[in-house]
Amino acid sequence: MGCCSSASHSSKREWKPLEDRSCTDIPWLLLFILFCVGMGFICGFSIATGAAARLVSGYDSYGNICGQKNVKVDGIVNSGLDLTQKKYVFFLDPCNVDLVHRKIKSIALCVAACPRKELKTLADVQKFAESNGSNLCSYELQASEYTKNSQASKLCPKLPVPESAPIPFFHRCAPVNISCYAKFAEALITFVSDSSVLHRLISGVMTSKEIIMGLCLLSLVLSMILMVIIRYISRVLVWILTILVVLGSLGGTGVLWWLYAKQTKFVNETLTADQLQVAKDNLQALLVYAISATVFTVILFLIMLIMRKRVALTIALFHVAGKVFIHLPLLVFQPFWTFFALILFWSYWIMVLLFLGTTGSPVLNEQGFVEFRVLGPLRYMWWYHMVGLIWISEFILACQQMTVAGAVVTYYFTREKRNLPFTPILASVNRLVCYHLGTVAKGSFIITLVKIPRMILMYIHSQLKGKENACARCMLKACICCLWCLEKCLTYLNQNAYTATAINSTNFCTSAKDAFVILVENALRVAAINTVGDFMLFLGKVLIVCSTGLAGVMLLNYQRDYTVWVLPLIIVCLFAFLVAHCFLSIYEMVVDVLFLCFAIDTKYNDGSPGREFYMDKILMEFVENSRKSMKEAGRGGGAEGRELKPMASGASSS
């Protein structure tokens, strides 16, 4: 679809930033719209077949929907009941979960009310039924026979019946006591051989939930503060981050070893058996943390020694990126809008997925109970729905990349910054919607094509875990790794293709080829900026994670008598990293867009009248200083010198 339409002219064609706009990759936009129509058909089909009613109101093991009058189904006993007064689904054994098939292995009944207190005997179950008319045993058993019928143990709920409450909007009776959910977690985490360890971990999370929420909020605040620092003190940001990370890593390592020594003394004190076990778990965790922090600190120092000579390049580029955020403050909020859009789509996707779980015709399973299954070609709707999750999610992320690229391109190629549009972000969104949705759809589809086989291989690897031989395991991991690397490379190329489209309004393949040519011509600069720039942003993420984790260690230290630290700290650190990544990825995106604009500027402009540079003065000063230093060092004719040659006249004229 136009991949090679301009192959012979793209290298000769001069770029004309923001001058002409035209629609790009229209066939791909039509294909994406048709795909979304298919997603809508799946949702409509599931609702039309009654899945929505079965999902919201719930249904029993005989196919009856609770809270309404049902139609008799041939061959199925207890179907076609009038359950108008019985609006809640009650499971006879709610904690018996089949994790493989993702369902509760228990008879489900429609009842008038959920038991709000624990029922220990069949007499209590009978009294509950007589008091409010809510029969918790099978339909064919009358309440008066609960304590007399010999089959009551099979037809009545498992004793004791836990206290339960209806789930809002979904009319299911769910146990109130979390011990039932702890059993779910034990079944999910198969690598824990001692269930008491898992119980202590869950207890630690529940006990420390206020601290966990506070630390998550702290990571959000730290990320916002770091973005403010990037805006206003970008010139010294690299040095500040370097010093803070060095001090943070040294301080964190020292504190961990100090806490380990302190915990060692605490273990030697007179403790109860439970306290001693928790203290030993904490001591072992602290030792792992301290050793890991020490190794990380040593590696960090070595990397900084290697990269110290290229810090000046990062400072110049970060300074310009800081100016972009000053002129375009709404860029900071892009992660929020993207996250909000993803949450809305994921909520819709999960809702339709739940609809699909109750879609189809009633059939009897091996136990003689009713299940709803889709027969024929329509059963492949699951796969279509799964592809939709990946493609549309990537489409939303690509829209963010195109929006940021369009806003930064507008900033860079506007000579007088006071002539910028009132809201460059909204102007970029308008160009995206009017002209380039097809390009975004095509780029996101390419990423989807790589993600799907990687996810399939990961699923196969998880299913064959422990069964395949060493050679097959190695080949699977190698394929997964190669697909991951390919996905990262394509993502980086896609982002630069979106920038090229935002500049010159060309289709995806032409933009990708033009951007690739520019990147290859500036290979040394790409390596330097991606290495040093990404590393500095990574240090920012490390700073936020370490600060949040250190605060967590200090706060959780006051609960060492009854809390295992491992799981709360892992939750907090993962959340802190995700928050920092969301914010700093926008900054990383701005730096990449600025670099491509800078490379195009140096290639097609030389500072002469009519071909003046668009770039910021600090970039011209940096390139001129680099050129002079290389001449003084006698390396002016090297590869880097050839890259900087177009800047000579422009730098001198400025």
From TrEMBL:
Transmembrane feature ranges: 26-48, 211-230, 236-260, 286-306, 312-332, 339-360, 380-413, 535-556, 562-584
Main location: membrane
Bias type Basic and acidic residues, positions: 630-645
Protein name in UniProt: Choline transporter-like protein
Cellular component terms (Gene Ontology): cytosol; mitochondrial outer membrane; nucleoplasm; plasma membrane
One Pfam match: Choline_transpo
Subcellular localization: Cell membrane; Membrane
GO terms of molecular function: choline transmembrane transporter activity; ethanolamine transmembrane transporter activity
Region of interest: Disordered: 630-654
Family: Belongs to the CTL (choline transporter-like) family.
Origin: domain of life: Eukaryota
Described purpose of this protein according to its UniProt entry: Choline transporter.
Designated gene of the protein: SLC44A1
Membrane topology listed for this record: Multi-pass membrane protein
Keywords associated with the record: Membrane, Transmembrane, Transmembrane helix
